[in-house]
Design a protein that fits this description.
Number of strands: 7
Distance between the termini: 31 Å
Bound molecules: ligand K1U, zinc ion
Low-confidence stretches: none
Mean pLDDT: 97
Helix content: 25-40%
Number of helices: 3
Order of helices and strands: HEEEEEEEHH
Structural class: alpha+beta
């Protein structure tokens, strides 16, 4: 297992659409999921999409356990949204690829999803609360969409300007 560098916006790789995993979930995919989980725990974060470590595959990891609770890793291969509620709710989101910026995003309050897990078994689940927020945020990454893309142009440009400045200063 390895901790891998997380891409930071405005890296163009974060804007690409990730490709489905074709065929079975293999040990190679599981090794990638292990690296993703370790990278996410180290950051720390509650979710991570493969493209955030530069791998354009439709794979997500997540752990919504609170501090002090036993770890509860979740793995999603080729996740799909089967249904989304009409009701939307706001949640103050963050992103490991948009460090130090948080803002409210409105998303469907509940979604039904289908995915394959670490073992390659097909699962269907109803999600609500933080689970619904996080899976939708991570699935946006698979389409090359960041949470700041849901904000006004002014807010998005403010966040990106801050990130570009931080990158320039880090390069000095
Ligand atoms: O970059 C990512 O996609 C991960 C992101 C997931 C997320 C957070 C909040 C709403 C939607 C999606 C994060 O994990 S940001 C960091 C974070 O939320 C957190 C970090 C430490 C403890 C608890 C939360
Ligand atoms: Zn994110």
């Amino acid at each position: 297992m390895a901790i891998r560098p997380i891409l930071v916006a405005p890296d163009p790789r974060l804007k690409q659409k990730s490709k489905p995993v074709e065929g079975p979930v293999t040990d190679e995919h599981r090794a990638l999921m292990d690296d993703m989980l370790e990278t996410m725990y180290d950051a720390p974060g509650i979710g991570l999409a493969a493209i955030q470590i530069g791998e354009p595959l439709r794979i997500i990891v997540m752990d919504l356990a609170r501090e002090g609770e036993p770890k509860q890793p979740r793995y999603f291969v080729n996740p799909e949204i089967l249904w989304a509620s009409e009701e939307v709710v706001p949640y103050e989101e963050g992103c490991l690829s948009v460090p130090d910026y948080y803002d409210d995003v409105e998303r469907p309050a509940r979604v039904k999803i289908r995915y394959r897990n670490y073992q390659g078994e097909q699962i269907e689940e109803d999600c609500e609360g933080l689970y619904a927020v996080c899976i939708q945020h991570e699935m946006d990454h698979l389409e090359g969409v960041l949470f700041i893309d849901h904000l006004s142009r002014l807010k998005r440009e403010k966040a990106l300007t801050k990130l570009k400045k931080a990158k320039r200063e880090a390069a000095l």
